[in-house]
Amino acid sequence: MIVEYRTTCTWEGPPVSTAETDRAATPAADPRVEVLPARDVPLGGPRAMTVRRTLPQRSRSTIGAWCFVDHYGPDDVTSTGGMDVAPHPHTGLQTVSWLFTGEIEHRDSLGVHAYVRPGEVNLMTSGRGIAHSEVSTPATTVLHGVQLWVALPEEHRHTGRDFHHHVPAPVALDGGEARVFLGTLAGDTSPVPTFTPLLGAELTLHAGATVTLDVDPAFEHGLLVDSGHVRLLDTPLRPAELGYAAPGRDTLTLTNTGDTDARLVLLGGTPFEEQIVMWWNFIGRSHEDIVQARDEWQAATDRFGAVQGYPGDRLPAPELPGLPLKPRGNAR
């Protein structure tokens, strides 16, 4: 079941602060791994699709510069009309769209008209401001994938708008396969540029397989389970859970404990030391940053530009909360 997004809600769901996901992390079998549970988040509307959100949450705001992880589907959209996200704004971030099933049409105020398809990454840089729309194509019957955000560091958060599309080739692992959409893993490097060191890859682990991956010891890593039951080091992870491993390891060992293939998304990066304010579709450094971005979106200034070709109105911003938004980062 999926929401008809229309003008009631953006992809990212209700307006929330950085600490939105409030479940406590689960103690892990291996103290080197923290298990971050998913929180179910309805995206709005009478037929809302529920996504599983693992970042941000109280115990961890970021993994590297990854600051937002939504995992959704598989959802049969044949009876609901599919995804229809009207033009909406972003600041201070990059969006990373990765599908397992389905197809989404993307239009943005940079003038890009592109498609998100399984196994193909679309990375959009908002910089100081961008607007875009997302609409599933008529041929789509099932939507299934992840929507990810990357926080831009202070020195680059006002950079210009940008867009990159890449189709990573599958890389054979001893017991599985990887598709590297950002960074470097298993001898493959994505050409998509990032503003901080990052890793993003879809992994397939064959039934009963154990795979040891060489990784950058300066990176912290998060392993999201889409399907199957796996172990990260010695800690079991269930579907929709995100396992966190701190920096300091040059290998990660993954084991598929099930009798079918497991599908995973591996995220990583150097720890993001800055505090951020994340509300609705904006990332800033202060409450005033968010207020200004909201005001400029509502006033339809040139900051965000216009999306051409979307047959409808753009989304209005929700009301700000009554209390000032406070910057947050990871507890050290």
Automatic annotation (TrEMBL):
Positions of the Pirin N-terminal domain: 50-150
Family matches, as Pfam families: Pirin (PF02678), Pirin_C (PF05726)
Metal-binding as UniProt keyword: yes
One function term, GO molecular function aspect: metal ion binding
Region (Disordered): 308-332
Domain Pirin C-terminal: 201-300
Keyword DNA damage annotated: no
Entry similarity comment: Belongs to the pirin family.
Name of this protein: Pirin family protein
Binding residue positions for Fe cation: H88, H90, H132, E134
Sorted UniProt keywords: Iron, Metal-binding
InterPro entries linked to this entry: Pirin, Pirin_C_dom, Pirin_N_dom, RmlC-like_jellyroll, RmlC_Cupin_sf
Cofactor binding note from Swiss-Prot or TrEMBL: Binds 1 Fe cation per subunit.
UniProt cross-references to SUPFAM superfamilies, sorted A to Z: RmlC-like cupins
Origin: domain of life: Bacteria
